[in-house]
């Protein structure tokens, strides 16, 4: 990812972003940061970039010409109009979901204002987003820009060494992070909670969740209210657990934004994938939920940004077509692994770099395997989906003698999928090895493993049943533009 910061103080920005995790990410080529000095583009011989505002008033205003020319130098270099964020107290408050969204950009321009602001005409010409880091005023946009670069960079694959560390911290799922402790066990008479010393992963997860809830309720009642509303939805959805596992896990993993809820009618937005989810127990309430989804989309980038929705009732498909302009894509069966115990791996796979006869080695792979992976992808989304997924999330590849023979991953909305095995290596339990690995990995990090199988894919149905997954009676209807 490439950050382009338009500023009057380039040294301040570059020095502030040259150390720690961000500095290492730059060294490793995971991100790049350049500071463009707006003064270099002024036509004034004294390098003056400000003037008095028309109509009078206190202070000076940054002029349009040098700002525009500085921005255009970036646009010309990358060959297109980049997403451009103006750092201003008048903007939308920056948040963790925004950081995740912006991390998907290849290039991002951050415009730092000074004095009393910037000529409105150039803002209208180049700015796509107005953002603030809080309801207070600073002397310039450099500090907010550095805050955003730090936050966004952490969401770029590879920047954080632990693949889960970016998704188990403050603000995920509308909960603050739980308290953490290190050595010694006793410090100034204060003792580390006994459960953290027990080694019982299940009890530790439970304690951390309860501690996070209590801390959020005490310190951030506004966030707790959102958490409580989603938790009430989760309890409603649990009444048809198998059918709604996608929405239940969306809430549990901290990806869900609540759009509308009325009894068993629940509408969610996935902050990671951008997919909408809809379920209802009544036609009229279902129609109202659809209208709420349309309203939400219009207020968050426009209805054209709504590209995909998962429906849990067939009679809502026609409504979605009429209200949202989407069309049927695929229909799926929901398969859920309901057990708590991991599956045995004997004779299936290893993760230690060795591949005994009849077994594959499974390890995480990135975009460097895009060409090999796309060569035998036959999924409904097209081979480009594999490359995009490798770039953004990574996959888990199965190897025999260092040859990629299969892979699996998680769709952004949480379900296991993208399971592929090279044709010449099928019927050798590689698919079973990959899904076993994925189920066990999901259990390790506290997720309930689930998958959505396209209706008619009997080979996949048989695989799920052989691994002990249970199928919901009702179907999921995917619609897209």
Short note summarizing the structure:
By secondary structure, the chain is an alpha/beta fold. The protein has helices spanning 10-16, 20-27, 64-78, 96-102, 120-126, 142-153, 201-219, 221-237, 245-252, 283-299, 317-324, 370-375, 383-392, 430-444, 458-466, and strands at residues 2-7, 32-37, 50-51, 61-62, 83-93, 107-112, 129-132, 186-187, 190-191, 256-262, 265-270, 276-279, 308-311, 327-336, 349-350, 360-365, 395-400, 403-410, 416-421, 450-454, 470-480. It folds into 4 domains: 2-153, SPOUT methyltransferase, trefoil knot domain (Alpha/beta knot, 3-Layer(aba) Sandwich), CATH 3.40.1280; 165-219, tRNA(m1g37)methyltransferase, domain 2 (Trp Operon Repressor, Chain A, Orthogonal Bundle); 236-330, no CATH class; 349-447, Aminopeptidase, CATH 3.40.630.30.
